[in-house]
Amino acid sequence: MSADAFSLAKERFFRYTEKMGLDRRFPGQSMPEHLTEPDRSVEVRISLKRDDGSVQVCRGYRVQFNDDRGPYKGGIRFHPVVDLAEVKALAFWMYMKTAVVDIPFGGAKGGVAVDYPALSLAEKERLTKRYATVLVDELGSERDIPAPDVNTSAREMAWIMDVWRLIHGRYQRGIVTGKPVAMGGSLGRETATGRGVVFAIEEAAKQIRLDLRGATAAIQGFGNVGSSTARFLAEAGVRVTAVSDVAGAVRDPRGLDIAALRRHAAETGGVAGFPGGEPLDREDLFAEPVDILVPAALEHAITENNAGRIRARLIAEGANGPTTSEAAHILQQRGVTVIPDILCNAGGVTVSYFEWVQNRQEFYWTAEKVDAELRQVMARASREVFAEAARHDCCLREAAYRIAIERVATAAAARGVQ
Ligand code: GLU
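Above: inputs. Below: predicted complex with glutamic acid.
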């Protein structure tokens, strides 16, 4: 049996903690174990009443990984492959991510194993509200704050907020982030992950001397992250020449019209059949002759099977965990620069933090202020990661983990054990 996502994430983590001498530096504190043992994992039954009156029983999860640096924070995904090990891995990456960009949160993640897009709107609302009702005691603006993830959006956050308000009898805006602007959401939150990916690419491009004007990119995944990354890359002068999603892929070496592609995907449900490009095999997207490759879908997209075919100089991990350890090793040997997920896609949770701040103050920022603050956070974190990589002569992933581990271990040690 192949190891699950969480065991693999831990293995990688222990390699870093060992190199950092964490045990020696925090003697007798079992620090590597403290940092990799989730605080709380909740697994629940979610019974969904279908429109035809039948009941579908699904598994739901919320993993609160660590709150040494602040309240638990992380998205909720509704997808058939969701299981406890995956949610644990995602929750673990969340708390590494909040530490890399140095925002005052811990990490969590939730999900339900269900084919969510196949449900009717009424079924979607019932499922989301059932999930929120079952887990309502876990949530709170100073306890655990959900946000959108795969197949969830502002709509689901509004439903969760409604459940919390009905049960607790009061309005608490900071209970979720990524909610509709009309309910206290932040401007710029919906596109924040893609915006942050492009800020991270801009910083990395300076470091590796890649001129973005006229550079080319391929994007795997055209959901929230992939489509907004495509849009902002195009705005930065990058030619996006290939895009794929769950059902198909398209290419145009002269550069796809991203606004038209977004409209096509919104109308038809995907990129396949886009008249402004030629069809492409989804797996061949990885071998496109581009400067930048952005995996922006699910875990384990780049494996030992396709890493050797990649021709990009720069990989920007818009998704969480898109590159396996074997693939990372191949890419490093081939001199490909990889902006690791816990840095690259941290723009989403960073603007979630801005939303939470605005909710606490009941004072709302302009879209320009959100973008300017986000740019600062992403640029500073990117520079820190590049400097750490130079200091230790290591890859950017190891550098990002070193920074995150240092921050979480310092907080954990300061808090003490009782
Ligand atoms: N789901 C996003 C992520 O994986 C955002 C989480 C958040 O904003 O809390 O980073």
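The first strand starts at residue 40 and ends at 49.
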